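Subject: Sanity check before I submit

Could someone independently write out the structure tokens for this chain? I want to compare against mine line by line before I put it in a report. The sequence has 73 residues.
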Amino acid sequence: MMTTTTETRSGPNLAPAFLDWWKARRAEYKRRRLLRRTRIDLSQLDDVILRDIGLTRGDVRGFDPAEHHWRWG
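---
Independent answer below. Compare away.
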């Protein structure tokens, strides 16, 4: 019996869906870690740079040093 990449003998292969979910989860974790660690004001960055790191202009208003965390738009 031949199997494909999406089907196994015991049923559908969930590995591709799991890997997609895992990669998205890791990307979100890395994006949030970058926001926590960086000390620059992201609201001053160019839209192209924001897109490259996975953000949009509406995602962030800037870092509030008094509160020690990012204020989300």
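---
OP: Matches mine. For the report I'm noting this point. Helices lie at 15-37, 47-52.
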